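Subject: sequence -> structure tokens, single chain

Hey, anyone have a minute? Need the predicted structure for the following. Not urgent.
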Amino acid sequence: MNEPNRIPKPVMMALAAVFLFETWIWEACVALGRQLAELLPWDELKSSVRRGIDGLPPPAALLVFLIPVAIVEPLKIFCLGLFAHHHYVLGVVGFIALKFIGFGLIAFVFDLTRDKLLSMPWFVVVYDKLMAFHAYAHDLMAPAKAALLAAMREWRERLRPAAERLRALAGLARS
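Reply:
Had a minute. Here:
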């Protein structure tokens, strides 16, 4: 039987999968945010924003980091409200768009404020715990990921003859 404070492995695997998916989106949004920031022609503005953040005390940098969260999260709740009021498409599309926009903004601002944030001991503890969970999630999901990839390879090999027959039939139909 599980210990009272221990989370069952299937639940941990589900949490790890969601966490890794969110991390994957986060990393993509960071890269996209950096590319978009490079496209902006206002080099002077970008450097002054960096200087401004560099001049802030760490708690103020934390507030700057939380601004995108404070903007995006209420809007996501609004989208859930749209969904609840039978505006399904608008609610879902808005929620997904805000998820990506939020990740992009938060990731971009984190990139700007990281050094200031990591100068606060409590933030380092939280950050280290998140990074430790990230490593744990990878280790926990590695066997499932390997099994899924092996199953996909097996299915691809099983379906290859049928795909080749379809290609041959498509070639005959064109003639």
